[in-house]
């Protein structure tokens, strides 16, 4: 009986350490993406800290809603200002798809070259909720080139900022000219 109690106690202690703990360096980030009032599914959104360090990634569901993830099982984004990058993804893929087949899948284009209305946001400690709208591209921007990346790549971070964190870049295509940045700070 004592051995059973010790085994159960040990298992409980081990599982407590497995739960992701909220970080004081991260804010929880949720939101929704709309285009003409309709939710936008299958969009990848990256939150790149201007100060450098690991970006957070989010994917919209069928209702256009997303939650940013910093690491596997660790929701959130680094506190501070972020440049936003985004792209539509092909959506659900077959479970048995090979990496080679995945690379050959063409990414869908955003209708009429629409771009996100916010290209820079500020994440604060606690809960942050962002409502993004896909809007027509600025006058003179070619629609076929719009909508893959809202900002030019951020400047290289200082050596001490996030030096031990690998840079993660998913589903992003470079653009030659970035539209002016709009900034939003949640209340």
How is this structure best described in words?
With 187 residues, the protein is mainly beta. Helix content is 11%, strand content 32%. The chain has helices at residues 2-16, 99-104; strands at residues 26-35, 38-39, 43-49, 56-59, 65-67, 69-71, 74-75, 77-78, 80-88, 115-116, 120-123, 126-135, 183-184. Strands 1, 2, 5, 8, 10 and 12 form a six-stranded mixed sheet that branches. The N and C termini lie far apart (55 Å).
Q: Span from first to last CA?
A: 55 Å
Estimated radius of gyration? 19 Å
Secondary structure: number of strands: 13
Shape: globular
Helix count from the secondary structure assignment = 2
Residue runs with pLDDT of under 50 for 5 or more positions = 1-21, 143-180
Strand content: 25-35%
Mean pLDDT: 74
- Largest sheet data: 6 strands, mixed
**Multimeric organization:** single chain
- H/E topology pattern: HEEEEEEEEEHEEEE
What is the share of helical residues? Answer: 10-25%
Helix/strand-derived category reads mainly beta
Short description:
The chain is mainly β and 187 residues long.
């Amino acid at each position: 009986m004592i051995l059973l109690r010790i085994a159960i106690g040990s298992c409980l202690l081990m599982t407590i350490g497995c739960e992701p703990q909220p970080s004081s360096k991260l804010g929880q980030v949720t939101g929704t993406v709309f285009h003409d009032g309709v939710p936008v599914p299958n969009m990848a959104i990256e939150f790149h800290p201007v100060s450098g360090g690991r970006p957070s990634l989010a994917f919209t569901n069928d209702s256009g809603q997303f939650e940013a993830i910093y690491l596997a099982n660790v929701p959130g984004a680094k506190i501070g200002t972020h440049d936003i990058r985004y792209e539509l993804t092909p959506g659900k893929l077959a479970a048995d798809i090979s990496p080679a087949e995945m690379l050959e899948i063409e990414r869908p284009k955003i209708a009429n070259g629409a771009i996100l209305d916010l290209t820079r946001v500020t994440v604060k400690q606690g809960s942050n909720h962002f409502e993004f709208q896909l809007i027509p591209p600025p006058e003179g921007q070619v629609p076929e080139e719009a909508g893959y990346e809202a900002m030019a790549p951020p400047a290289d971070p200082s050596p001490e900022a996030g030096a031990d964190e690998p840079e993660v870049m998913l589903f992003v295509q470079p653009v030659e000219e970035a539209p002016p940045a709009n900034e939003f700070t949640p209340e």
